[in-house]
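Structural prep section.
Before we set up the soaks we want a predicted structure of the protein with fe (iii) ion in place, mainly to decide which crystallisation condition to try first. Input record follows.
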Amino acid sequence: MTTIPSATEIVTIPCLKDNYAFALHLRETGRTLIVDVPEAAPILAECARRGWGITDVLLTHHHWDHVDGLPDLRAAVDGPVRVWGAAADAHRLPALDHALSEGDVIEIGALRGAVYDVSGHTLGHIAVHFPQAGVVFTADSLMALGCGRLFEGTPAQMWESLSKLAALPRDTLVCSGHEYTQSNARFALTVDPENSALRARAARIEDARAKGMPTVPSSLGVELDTNPFLRAKDPKIKAHLGMTGASDAECFAEIRQRKNNF
Ligand code: ZN
Ligand code: FE
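Run finished without errors. Recording the tokens verbatim:
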């Protein structure tokens, strides 16, 4: 199935104040996967405009701003909608048709997605990587120039989660859950001020936001080069934080703490 990349389309759908949902459409089978449902109306409108029938929903984690639109979405869609989400979160997610754990594979027609446990923001948060489409859905784990706040997990857990995502191919499209990039960029510059790739990206972000343009999705390669939460192992960052000799996870924890106070 080498034709898969050209046979899929991905659309970013702004929802609520600063959330993003995504639609992944497979032309061959006509199936459309929605990733997170902050609210139904913008998702229904975008899919109707494109003539896409919604067949599947992936819920990344239990927070209300990622799931609350599901009942309205279901009510508006003709036909069954299969709901995929974490087995570990089944007790606090809407009813799941497919309960997922790390290592499971989602199959949507010919498209396969690998499930990763990316706990940290919440316990049970999942990310799904579709290698054929070159995309990973990360929601509030890895974000554009940032990572989710640690509501439930430990810094060490989030560092492990981010390290799994960091190992994916550099050209992977990172579809994350919020438009937080501008404030993330201003923070990142305080941690990694000498990074010329970061400075150039921060300038592009200021420009894009001034024009009201989205900064999500991004590419994993760009995140690896500029996102301080992925770069906690960088000797220059450790030195800048006065943490030479500290472990990568300790350095990550310090960066996350500084962001909380930023
Ligand atoms: Zn969240
Ligand atoms: Fe969120």
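Observations: The chain has nine helices and 14 strands.
Flagged for discussion at group meeting.
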